[in-house]
Amino acid sequence: MERSPTFAASFDDPRITEQFCRRIAGAPNDLVLLGVVHDHPASVARVERVLEAVEPDVLALELPPAAIPLYRAYARDGASPPRFGGEMSAAISAAADATVTGIDAPNWTFLRRLVSRLIADRTSPSTVRRLFSSLGGATREALRCRLAATLTRATSMTVARDDPVEYECSHDASPERQAAHERSHVASVQALLGGVAPDDALVYRDETREECMVDRLEEIRSRADVVAVVGVDHLEPIATALST
Predict the structure, then answer these.
(1) Is residue 160 part of a domain?
(2) pTM
(3) How many domains does the chain have?
(4) Do strands 58-61 and 99-102 pair parallel, antiparallel, or not at all (unpaired)?
(5) Distance between CA atoms of 219 and 237, rounded to whole angstroms?
(6) 21-70, pLDDT tens digit by residue?
(7) Range of the domain at 39
């Protein structure tokens, strides 16, 4: 399998570049991988434009499966882009005929793999405590999404999981302005994180999440065309794993 260098360039849009958009060629189906910045106008536009062009059988989102019903509800609100859910609900709205699946933790596959790795590495008790504290928060968040989806379906109100992130760049800004702002934002965050020693607990969590997402994407690609939307920090490791 090899990465096509021409896919992003086929779009006349500065928001769709190799930094954020990869096509992973392979048998029997190709996979398009989109990296996003949560709620950023450039990311919302990127998923909308690519999904309108590609029309995949399956849309895979970096969300836990329990959160998918809520983002489906957000996608149905009639606004363009949807008022809530950022690039994830925008992706669902743009891929109306696709099967939507959540590929992120928490799930049983992730937990089994994580526990096996912790035991094999003889991980320190302090790291394990920090790790499972973060997982507890993620599990509670997934359950809140499920509850919010139930309330949204059962009532006339939309239950927002959180307030949208606001940037100094709007959905009405030009594609060039959106693209430049997003690149600057990503560079600033990466520079900030680059000066901080990584937490072992978060490394275990994120590496295991990525491994599980790669396995899930490989399984989906074996039977269908797929577009996957993931956080931009996960784009490179997932693309590399899928290309080997």
Answers:
(1) yes
(2) 0.85
(3) 1
(4) parallel
(5) 17
(6) 999 987 678 899 999 999 999 999 999 999 999 999 999 999 988 889 88
(7) 3-181+197-242
